[in-house]
Amino acid sequence: xxxxxxxxxxxxxxxxxxxxxxxxxxxxxxxxxxxxxxxxxxxxxxxxxxxxxxxxxxxxxxxxxxxxxxxxxxxxxxxxxxxxxxxxxxxxxxxxxxxxxxxxxxxxxxxxxxxxxxxxxxxxxxxxxxxxxxxxxxxxxxxxxxxxxxxxxxxxxxxxxxxxxxxxxxxxxxxxxxxxxxxxxxxxxxxxxxxxxxxxxxxxxxxxxxxxxxxxxxxxxxxxxxxxxxxxxxxxxxxxxxxxxxxxxxxxxxxxxxxxxxxxxxxxxxxxxxxxxxxxxxxxx
Length: 285
Description:
Number of strands: 18
Largest sheet: 18 strands, mixed
CATH superfamily of the largest domain: Diaminopimelate Epimerase, Chain A, domain 1
Radius of gyration: 18 Å
Distance between the termini: 19 Å
Strand content: 35-45%
């Protein structure tokens, strides 16, 4: 089975063209994403046909769980389908996900896509939409989340998947995210688990963030997480309508004027292509 290894700001994926095949993607993701015995990656991205968009993207985490949204993955899929001639080069395309249909525009240099801008849809703040274990329609802003006696003021929202954003005074690199992250992900306040972002504000145009991703752990970047961070910062009056966000894997840019759709812009790169020789778990039927 052929695959492409790609990344967006260090958030790395295994991309598989599944327009004419089906596999047990959950099991395959566990095997292929293993960084010692597999290809290694933060997830697999499956390209399927769509009746609503140019293509459909499904994303499976290293633990086998499926995520409705992956913004860095959207940029990688856009590069893949344009570079492979599956969509007209230089044009706009749309990609269907579990969270809806996202418009994507690509930037091409020397005949290949180097970056993409993704329409992320509107952020959702209703507690039942995120979801969080809180009644009522009030926005969850600076909620004191107790994590084993340590408190984090989290602002919660959905960008097609759930996010809890904490702006902190201390350096984000000093937070033991490998310890705190899984406790926040599985906290009872988040019935469907959550992505957890910790953020430092450099100035009104620049943020630094790290992320613990639901089903994946610490990653070098998270596009939907960066989008959530940009929205939360704008909501709290910490930034202007556009902001650059620096993550361990690179820089992403987010725009949100306080209402309407969020946009996200960042790189998309091909690392290598290969052929998976392991058990491909082809479905029978």
